[in-house]
UniProtKB/TrEMBL annotation:
Origin superkingdom: Eukaryota
Protein name per Swiss-Prot or TrEMBL: Protein ENHANCED DISEASE RESISTANCE 2 C-terminal domain-containing protein
A Pfam family annotated for this UniProt entry: EDR2_C
Domain (Protein ENHANCED DISEASE RESISTANCE 2 C-terminal): residue spans on this chain: 34-245
Amino acid sequence: MAKHDDNDEPEWIRRIKSEGAVPLLEPDNCPNGWASPSGDIFKVRGPEYFTTKLKVPAGEYLLKPLGFDWIKSSSKISEVLKDPNNRIRKVLDNEFPEGNQPFVWAFNLQLPSKENYSAIAYFVATEPCLEGSLIDQFIKGGDGLRNSRLKLIANIVKGPWLVRTAVGEQAICVIGRALSCKYCVGEKFLEVDIDVGSSVVANAIVHLAFGYITSLTVDLAFLIESQTDAELPERILGAFRFSELNPDSAQSFEASSAAIPITSSTPPGISFWKSLGQGFTNLLHPGASEAGAVADAPQVNGTSDHADNVENTKSTFDAGHRRFCSIEWVNATNELIRVDEPGSFEDFKHIIMLRTVVNDLRDCNKDSTFSLSLFVLHADSFS
């Protein structure tokens, strides 16, 4: 059982924790840093979940927090633990020259951006996993099993109401069903490269949120989903908090020749959502594109003039309507309005909710749909 407040941890672990681009700080005060939040803030399936549907505080992690990297590169960052120049690998190779290294996990969130940012959380197993255990099955199993089991719990601890509402409280998803994941498994490590931009929904939300990243505090927890009574209660593998990250503080990273770069194609329809995300970011966070916060998306609203922002964003919604659906919004008197064509933006007062239901592009084998709620501010709100 991992105790992340252990004061007797080895020197090599303390060194890895302290050498990242952003510092390890206390959870309650970690500006432009990372921390290890308490496991009890996350709710997981309890011991009788399949009967009672009750979730319980998660308790301590199964793995020990090892480090955090906030890095960027000229290409998408992947398979970092295969790179002999990776800082974690170098410490482990020096500390355990005869082998017998502890097992390391890495969760690499590849953010959709021109700068190819990655937020990577590392964890280490303090005890060998039991043969046949859920962790053992996950490590030795195929990608199908992993995609159906690996879960993410996300919580916006602090941030603009807009972002907190878009993400929701304790948002939970099975990552492999929502995003493209690549699993890199070595003798003493397992790395999950999570392409956030592979989901049209996640891509749009990240583009929206990235403009506020310097004011966001986010908790992320990873766990293997329990699907039978014998596997309950669920346990968190590891969790981390990042707070008020500054894009400029990200370290530049270039893979060595020993590491294999990965390229990914853009899913159908993603350019539309990139445009939509850019439009929201520019409307809600003027100047974000000029600052490079969402530099990879097309310039939907490339001007600082509020009237032009509103008109350009209206055009984006018009295009979205014709392609996907009609639009609903809540007016100033909290009435739900549904129209076959988006109304004039002069009718929108202060905060408006737009909802669209689109075909689920994540799974071509299903005719499922999902809802995406997005929020905009009327131009008068900026005056």
